[in-house]
Amino acid sequence: MKLLINKITLLAVLLSINVVADEFTIGQKNKAFSKENISIKKGDTIHFLNEDPFFHNVFSLSDTQFFDLGSYPKGESKAVVFNEAGKVEVECAIHSEMFLTIEVKE
Amino acid sequence: MKIKKYYTLFFTLGAMSLSLQALEFKDITFEAGHESLKEWILPTEVPYPEGNKPTSSRVALGKMLFFDPRISGDGNMSCSSCHNALLGWSDALATTKGSKSKVLGRASPSIINTAFNPLQMWDGRKKSLEDQAIGPMESEAEMNTDFDKMMLLLNQLQDYVDAFESAYPGEGINKKTIAKAIASYERTVISNTSPFDAWIKGDEKALSSEQIEGFKLFSDPKKGNCEVCHSAPNFTDNGFHNIGLASFGIDKPDMGRYAQKPLKLMKGAFKTPTLRDINRSSPYFHDGSAGTLEDVIEHYVLGGENKTNLSPNMKKSNLNDLEKKHIAAFLNVLSSPIKPITLPILPQK
Ligand SMILES: [Cu+2]
Predict the structure, then answer these.
(1) Cα(B82)–Cα(B93) distance, rounded to whole angstroms?
(2) Model confidence, pTM
(3) B312 and A71 in contact by Cβ < 8 A?
(4) How many Cβ contacts (< 8 angstroms) between chains A and B?
(5) Distance, CA of B92 to CA of B83 (rounded, Å)
(6) How many domains are contained in chain B?
(7) Residue A97's domain is classified under what CATH number?
């Protein structure tokens, strides 16, 4: 019985940790984000990894969250923590066809 | 603390969509028709938006409107004034001249292969050719069209009335159908039969060894590094870059794309133009500051003149004179054979 309670506690702890923060990687390859849409939770981090042999930029002018990661070359990544719930539209200023929609849930 | 990491699959069909995988320089074999060069083949079908398939009657109407100066405010400027087929669909001016010959801020961009562009204008502010077509008419500085007068004219001329009805049955004569017709005509201005196109498709004799050498230098990131922006298949990444022109150093310079996307990187950034038929539309750059293709190459060899907010793709290169010559030779094989153009006789009654 005690063992079972311990197991439940452990499970609860693990679950709560998972709720705390997840990390995701979104690649930039062939002038496209590796996904068009992604759903995450408040507090999660996305690493934007450039996999093309030229510079990319990552920015969002969304009301939910504004950021501009400047430009960086292949192999480099920059991270953004999403602290507000809502929709965030992400683009690359250099390549106008690159779009990613992030849904940040409570 | 254990944190889950999700790595996305980069090679899913979704991510690749319809575009071919862009190969890196080291993976390319510079031989006529080689598989690794397939990404340079332009789509055989020219893209068009829903509801505006370029039928022959739409193209014919668009051609009349494109060449008709009566639709401008002073009755003396047509689309063709600045996008002159005889001058590589541009106007041979450094920066173009608008209404009353007023000198404007930017060069008239060629309309060759603009059908493949996702965004129009040097700063990308127009999304489609339909969107763009009316812009110069609405601009006081450019065609300065009096739309009431224009509608009156088009409605009085029976041949125009018939042409609109045949092209867009029941849609009437309005800004929308005018724009759609002009866009349909512009979609026929395509360059895809150059010696380069033939070589890419396997015709070994289409390019000389010097021209092929030029293509290699053009593509090599350690040499010309041109392909980084002038990429396959239309010699453009459809992107925006500050290429370090001297004109960005003047007081209150043209901010380019920054007006549309207020991000530091976009200050002084302009759209990468296609290079097809490029030897027919000098001078070059959005400010017309380069008279010849040799001047353009020299600008890039220097890594730009004004380094303020320079694109990180710009860097000094070590090309020698022979290598520069080879690149120039390559740029000269991107033009399609000249096709005669028949001009429409415009409706008079
Ligand atoms: Cu990009």
Answers:
(1) 9
(2) 0.89
(3) yes
(4) 99
(5) 10
(6) 2
(7) 2.60.40.420
